[in-house]
UniProtKB/TrEMBL annotation:
MF terms in GO: ATP binding; ATP hydrolysis activity; transmembrane transporter activity
Entries under Pfam families matching the protein: ABC_tran
Xref: InterPro entries: AAA+_ATPase, ABC_transporter-like_ATP-bd, ABC_transporter-like_CS, ABC_transpr_LolD-like, MacB-like_ATP-bd, P-loop_NTPase
Protein name (Swiss-Prot/TrEMBL): ABC transporter ATP-binding protein
CDD domains with a match to the protein in the record: ABC_MJ0796_LolCDE_FtsE
Matches recorded under PANTHER family: ABC TRANSPORTER RELATED (PTHR24220:SF685), IMPORT ATP-BINDING PROTEIN (PTHR24220)
Origin organism lineage: Bacteria, Bacillati, Actinomycetota, Actinomycetes, Kitasatosporales
UniProt domain ABC transporter: residue ranges: 21-239
GO CC field: plasma membrane
The organism of origin for this protein: Streptomyces bungoensis
Keywords: ATP-binding, Nucleotide-binding, Transport
Domain of life: Bacteria
Amino acid sequence: MTHPTPAGTPAPDSTAAAAVLRLTDVTLRLGTGQQQVTALDGVGLSVAPGRFLAVTGPSGSGKSSLLAVAGGLQTPTRGSVHVAGVDLTTLKEHQRTAHRRHHIGYVFQHANLLASLTAREQLLLPAHVAGRLDAAARRRADELLDAVGMTARADRRPHQLSGGERQRVGLARALLLAPEVLLVDEPTSALDRARAREIVELLAQQTRAHRTATVMVTHDTEILDAADHVLVMRDGRLT
Ligand SMILES: Nc1ncnc2c1ncn2[C@@H]1O[C@H](COP(=O)(O)OP(=O)(O)OP(=O)(O)O)[C@@H](O)[C@H]1O
């Protein structure tokens, strides 16, 4: 499915006023001395509610660094990162963690599931932590498990799941609380073609339904058409 940009709709770099995620002139240097790498080099990015942005580009071009900075997991060397109106770079660590919990969902490439919890419990845990574990959250967990094709395996723990199944649980977990900003790293890397298509359509549909600002990093060129915009990262710069 293609979602072309309707005439008059601002491009990602011109929606600054409405943006719920906004990176301004972000540079990230990693390592020290001779080993130092400029992972991000003056990156600007704005994503408005309800927009689905895909970022692609060669290995090592800075895509994961972009998500880490946007999600407040890494502090840039220079520049600002506004999420829901607050510059993450000005916050103390505990404030940043709290802000992240309230506003950002993060889907890691390797799901980062807790070994002792079943698939359903993985989804319910963030709702529990947020004090929102009610009947509606349980219903939504079951709906999302169904949407990612995991209903039959909802009571399994991570070691009883395949890599692709874990990846789908990780995505459903991030969607449960319908975050304002959703950052997704390679959501289809362990999935077959048909499943990859279903998953990216689910992301597009949830982005619209909950007015989420979604940024998906991917190497998978076959799923790019589900996004509203595609940007390419090269040598730490977005084009
Ligand atoms: N901890 C680190 N210390 C030094 N350099 C690092 C560190 N982490 C990443 N880099 C370098 O920063 C650059 C950007 O890495 P990043 O992981 O953001 O790229 P990527 O586009 O996500 O790559 P891939 O598609 O392979 O996951 C690369 O040159 C990488 O080698």
